[in-house]
Amino acid sequence: MVPGEENQLVPKEDVFWRCRQNIFDEMKKKFLQIENAAEEPRVLCIIQDTTNSKTVNERITLNLPASTPLRKLFEDVANKVGYINGTFDLVWGNGINTADMAPLDHTSDKSLLDANFEPGKKNFLHLTDKDGEQPQILLEDSSAGDDSVHDRFIGPLPREGSVGSTSDYVSQNYSYSSILNKSETGYVGLVNQAMTCYLNSLLQTLFMTPEFRNALYKWEFEESEEDPVTSIPYQLQRLFVLLQTSKKRAIETTDVTRSFGWDSSEAWQQHDVQELCRVMFDALEQKWKQTEQADLINELYQGKLKDYVRCLECGYEGWRIDTYLDIPLVIRPYGSSQAFASVEEALHAFIQPEILDGPNQYFCERCKKKCDARKGLRFLHFPYLLTLQLKRFDFDYTTMHRIKLNDRMTFPEELDMSTFIDVEDEKSPQTESCTDSGAENEGSCHSDQMSNDFSNDDGVDEGICLESNSGTEKISKPGLEKITQEDIKKTHGGSSGSRGYYSSAFASSTNAYMLIYRLKDPARNAKFLEVDEYPEHIKNLVQRERELEEQEKRQREIERNTCKIKLFCLHPVKQVMMENKLEVHKDKTLKEAVEMAYKMMDLEEVIPMDCCRLVKYDEFHDYLERSYEGEEDTPMGLLLGGVKSTYMFDLLLETRKPDQVFQSYKPGEVMVKVHVVDLKAESVAAPVTVRAYLNQTVTEFKQLISKAIHLPAETMRIVLERCHNDLRLLTVPSKTLKAEGFFRSNKVFVESSETLDYQMAFTDSHLWKLLDRHANTIRLFVLLPEQSPGSYSKRTACQKAGGDSGGNVDDDCDRVKGPVGSLKSVEAILEESTEKLKSLSLQQQQDGDNGDSSKSTETSDFENIESPLNERDSSASVDNRELEQHIQTSDPENFQSEERSDSDVNNDRSTSSVDSDILSSSHSSDTLCNADNAQIPLANGLDSHSITSSRRTKANEGKKETWDTAEEDSGTDSEYDESGKSRGEIQYMYFKAEPYAADEGSGEGHKWLMVHVDKRITLAAFKQHLEPFVGALSSHFKVFRVYASNQEFESVRLNETLSSFSDDNKITIRLGRALKKGEYRVKVYQLLVNEQEPCKFLLDAVFAKGMTVRQSKEELIPQLREQCGLELSTDRFRLRKKTWKNPGTVFLDYHIYEEDINISSNWEVFLEVLDGVEKMKSMSQLAVLSRRWRPSEMKLDPFQEVVLESSSVDELREKLCEISGIPLEDIEFAKGRGTFPCDISVLDIHQDLDWNPKVSTLNVWPLYICDDGAVIFYRDKTEELMELTDEQRNELMKKESSRLQKTGHRVTYSPRKEKALKIYLDGAPNKDLTQD
């Protein structure tokens, strides 16, 4: 081209630089975008999925730029939760916007910042249903699916454990190929039962030995002579056939172990593979007696060797011939730090002779004297299959542990054994024979290698089989793959790092442990039998196993296509909710499934089948989701959304009476349980179930309820209970149910009377008080004392009156004259109380007729005392009566305790509602109403009250209750306030008691009360209500709460409410003085420092705030004499702090509780009997417990107390010198470890403790002795440790182990007891009780 021409080509250098500049520009642009995005404020969105109960506690967090449009937010949320975009709404959940419930627009391009999202803060959103319908699930292949399928399956997203469904009802992700399909290599693995890798390794090796497998195939099992289950050869034969012909990837070994007589526990026992080989070969020889295979093991595995001793003076040699099945080879000689490098070295060491000299000289029969001799082994004959055991397990005598040696030891594929054969003894035919077979160039053997440690994570063992000059495979995690020479080298063992004498730190699991070599002899080396070469009985066995495998495959296919879902049914006669599991094939129709469920619930003789149907049910919310009208011929796979491992819903077998018809349940409907409230009778009726839509207004909802319960809608008040004690009056007629907070299953209270109660504020109205009482009333069962109070109650009452007031004893005794003096029965007291109640009700009715509605409201019978406290003497003050006749909703602190445990909160939630039969004995039948049609008698398909009652009864039977720890951990408040007025008289809560007949086994013959009480009542007030029934003042009986395990714990916090109690809890009343203000119940234990059990419980005592230690000791003396038989004086014992079992601070007589000593409820103290005068006089002193260790005798002396004036180590040494006589310079001491008495084995104490710490004071590291009660061991450093023989050490170890186990202390070394490996020839073993 001519320069300057218009069409001039751009030089290559220009193209390069332009491309480079473009790349730089693009990179700069992206960096700017990233920089801008980093500077842009971000919005943190926290979304709560409220469409399903199981996802309501889950949170979805998105951190988005503030410029993100709303439609992008919806897309991100849809992808996050797996819903189809546009089938759900997002509404604000911040709290400030709760009044504005309008959902966000999912199509808007408005940014998050413009939509009032706040950057830098948490923006809470609720994911809710759209138009009353649940969000649609985003299926795996939504584009290919039918739209009708999406419409049909409406429900929450399957969570953990669920499997998404496809159009053919089966998850495409679920595959059985990993179990059923054979590997492409043709080999089959073995499944590890638990810890049976040693077994699998041996089985794989025997299977890969042609001579053994072929011989096993030739043996024929006679079923008439033996049970196939217990026949070891037959089960091995079956296993080998399956390993060769099965199409599975891995085979179970349970049938083989069952033939050994093992149970499932044996699978968790680790054993030695060489031991298993010997035991199994012995068992096979026993089974093969008098058969062609009788001598098979010896023919294949048995060799011969000579054990000789040769005199070095005359040359005389004595010898004997021994047989062997394997050769044990030492990895590392005893005392050596170097292992043998190869198998050949270990074999040479095995036959290396030793010299017997000195005290080990040999007595020569020819020389007739002891002479130096050479002792050794010589191989005479090698077996066809040579087994070498590499002794990788050893015993460390220092730590007394079994350890594994992982040193490197190489082994060749071909092993030349000619150098190890005996060629000297030509007289032995075995020698000549062995010399021929082991000649040079012919004495090498083919090798098989087996390790008992080959296993992988998915339970299939890796058996390695080596074939000469051919490819090899191994079973690995994903399947079968080729094994390489590098893999074989890894089995040699060894570690690159430095190691000590024992290499237990290098826990390799692939080191070779047993080697099997085969003689190279073309004439004898066999090949595996092919299928067409099988004997006839093996061909028959193969055919049977294939049929079983095909049958198993068909069964798995059926299981894979079976829907398994929970099935519920409310029994039409017993009214008890029954539960079962429905297993139905996906192709079965709904009609066929109804028939299966009908038979499963045993309703054949109860109700006709055409009076039953299956409906979709949510058991958690007790909610009927939908019915399946017109879909009787639809497959269950379509109705249930496919075959899944778990379903987010259940099925209910609904029943009806023959004259009723089923109601249609539509997916968008919600279920509402309507309780009718009668203000005059002060009762709450059983629920009536109606169904409504969330988009209905309150006015439309009232019309719907009016048709169902026949109450006028004009004066109707509806109260929604959204959660426990959260009552909401529906006052806005145009508001939708969704806006009011309705959910799937709801509970409302309806009242429609002509009274003026509706004009009052809702929280001040009679309706609110009645519902509040209904929500907080619980039913308790109270067991009264067995003995009649009688004179005891009267005496204690008079004593209390005399003690507290100093006079007026007669007046106080008259207070309990009714129940105590006349000894009225519980039934009589209740009868009088009932008469009083009737008169009060009549008076209220007359007041109501006079139009005094306010008075009627304030003096309703439920606010009057229904306990026999109304029967008190007429001299009671008018003020107290007025207090008893009115509910005063005072400060909430009166209802709540000062401290509440977690169990209290949990129990509050569990008692969210009370059955209506507490307040009303009549149960109205449910009526289901359709707003569009006239009223029709409908099926009682779901009696909500009955379900709730039966479900709660069932739950209470198996409920695990939590202990009320607050009662045990805190101090007790007085029953009386500062002015002396009873706390129980300050306010009144609902209380009603009636006699109760206990069930069998619940205390027949005892007096029981069934009490309905407001759980906000304090324990003090509750006890006062029980006074007439107990026959004693509340200060003279105690309340014990009975838990599910029948354990009883005293409730002592009198200002605590009963909020931690729930329905049907049991309470036991016992006579005895209750605690006053400032008093604490204390458990007293005796400290016995030199006894086997140093902590012994003595008694329960009461200590008071402000009491001195000496005063408490004086009060303990008569109790110790009467209850424990201890005759003590105040100077003969001391009290000290108890922390678990450790003795602590010594309390001095002048110490004052709560001032000098912190005290709490259920406090524990030690009582220590003194041998002499108390040495502890001041808090500056320190009392330690010393114990001498005598190494030369291997024993510990008893404890002796040492009182120090300071924390000086020198003073401690001087004191120890005084009590022991050991020279000061020879004393060594150490601090004890653990819980008192700091027991330690005498075999370990000499070296395990930190003797003679280099410190000058006791209160520094490593001693940290700052309080009384520390344990000090001391010894004489010049005393030598006793030398023990192995027998003495073993005997002492047993004694120490027994002693430490009895005292409950940890034994220093307690390895798992190894269990001997046994194979039982006749099936299961006989249990030998004398054998461990």
Description:
The protein is built from 33 helices and 48 strands. The strands form twelve sheets. Strands 27, 28, 29, 30, 31 and 32 form a six-stranded mixed beta sheet that branches. Strands 34-35-33-38-36-37 form a six-stranded mixed beta sheet. It starts with 11 loop residues before the first helix and ends in a 30-residue tail after the last helix.
Outline the fold blueprint.
Layout: H1 12-39, E1 42-49, E2 59-65, H2 70-81, E3 88-92, E4 122-129, H3 147-152, H4 177-180, E5 189-190, H5 197-207, H6 210-218, H7 232-245, E6 250-251, H8 254-259, H9 273-287, H10 296-301, E7 303-311, E8 317-324, E9 327-330, H11 343-351, E10 354-356, E11 362-364, E12 369-371, E13 373-381, E14 385-391, E15 393-396, E16 401-404, E17 414-416, H12 429-437, E18 444-450, E19 473-475, E20 480-482, H13 485-490, E21 514-519, H14 536-560, E22 562-570, E23 577-585, H15 590-600, E24 612-618, E25 623-627, H16 636-640, E26 650-655, E27 669-678, E28 683-684, E29 688-693, H17 698-709, E30 717-723, E31 726-729, H18 737-740, E32 745-751, H19 766-776, E33 777-783, H20 790-805, H21 809-815, H22 817-821, H23 826-849, H24 853-858, H25 878-884, H26 902-910, H27 944-958, H28 965-969, E34 991-996, E35 1008-1014, H29 1019-1030, E36 1037-1042, E37 1048-1051, E38 1065-1071, E39 1079-1087, E40 1095-1104, H30 1109-1124, E41 1133-1139, E42 1142-1147, E43 1163-1169, E44 1182-1190, E45 1195-1196, E46 1200-1204, H31 1209-1220, E47 1227-1231, H32 1245-1248, E48 1271-1276, ...
Parallel strand pairs: 1-4, 5-6, 9-14, 22-26, 27-32, 33-38, 39-43, 44-48
Antiparallel strand pairs: 1-2, 3-4, 7-8, 7-13, 10-13, 11-12, 14-21, 15-16, 17-18, 18-21, 19-20, 22-23, 24-25, 24-26, 27-28, 27-29, 30-31, 30-32, 33-35, 34-35, 36-37, 36-38, 39-40, 41-42, 41-43, 44-45, 44-46, 47-48
Helix pairs in contact: 7-14, 20-21
Region (Disordered): 421-499, 790-816, 837-925, 940-980
Pfam family, one: Ubiquitin_USP47_N
Domain USP: 188-544
